Amino acid sequence: MDLTLHVWRQPGPQAPGKMVRYEARGISEHSSFLEMLDVVNQGLIEKGEEPIAFDHDCREGICGSCGFMIDGTAHGPLPKTTVCQLHMRHFSSGAELTLEPWRSRAFPVVKDLMVDRGAFDRIIEAGGFISVPTGSAPEANLTPVPKPIADRAFDAATCIGCGACVAQCPNGAAQLFTAAKVSHLGLLPQGQPEREQRALRLVEAMEGQGFGGCSNFAECEAVCPKGISIDFIARLNRDFLKAKLNGAAAEHRGAKGGPG
Ligand code: SF4
Ligand code: FES
Question: Which residues in 167-199 are b (16+ Cβ under 10 Å) and which e?
């Protein structure tokens, strides 16, 4: 199949960028979108031109490295699919496609289609883990977890941190990512001791990273390659509000000289 690509080219974070037109000829319909870009890049290298930079690693839809906008949709037109798992048979020969990096103030462009998603790492660093000393690995059956809870926690844990949710959100909000990280720990018994503090810390970290606020567009859920539900955002908001209220109550008790 033959395609025309309009690709955002930007040599570096501070350099001005522009759309550049490329022709992709003789592409196999069985190749993935990234393999199609590999073919285009091979042609550019042979001509002595700079290849198109894009992030990728596993190419199996599990690492969260890949991702860019295809015709304005994060990860392209196929639901619940990362660009590395998107195959060219889902496009028609002769199609004209526009490729752009994630659109978000919190994800500055590194080069071409690559962005810096370090803001996600800084949210996790704020408390997206269980910090109690747990010693050696406990016997698995000592802490029974009901199946529906385990399934729900697993649903949240499937977040691969790709950033599509932020890129598609008109507000550039990171609520779905943060909610997934808070929920997958907060649903399990091992995550209970720090549950409210975790919600508080992650939300505060998120707010400091330049993301916008959530106003329930649900675009994040629509493009999430793991199908993570915005129901988790309701859980995040509930844990965050409980933490705020409990913190305020403790402060009040402290001011009155009562027990902390
Ligand atoms: S919530 Fe979905 S879209 Fe957002 S980072 Fe996680 S996997 Fe990617
Ligand atoms: S390259 Fe790992 S999810 Fe796409």
Answer: bbbebbbbbbbbbbbbbbbbbbeebeebbbebb
Probe residue for ligand 2, chosen from 80, 82, 114, 117 as the CB with the greatest number of ligand atoms within 8 Å: 82
Q: Whose CA is closest to atom 2 on ligand 1?
A: 224
pTM above 0.85, yes or no: yes
Q: Are 214 and 190 in contact (CB under 8 A)?
A: no
Contact residues of ligand 1, CB 6 A cut-off: 159-165, 176-177, 180, 224-226, 228
- Tens of pLDDT, residue by residue over 157-200, are 999 999 999 999 999 999 999 999 999 999 999 899 999 999 99
Distance (Å, whole) CA 211 – CA 204: 11
**Cα–Cα distance between 190 and 161 in angstroms, integer?**
22
Q: How confident is the model at residue 245 (pLDDT cuts 50, 70, 90)?
A: very high
Residue 51: DSSP 8-state: P
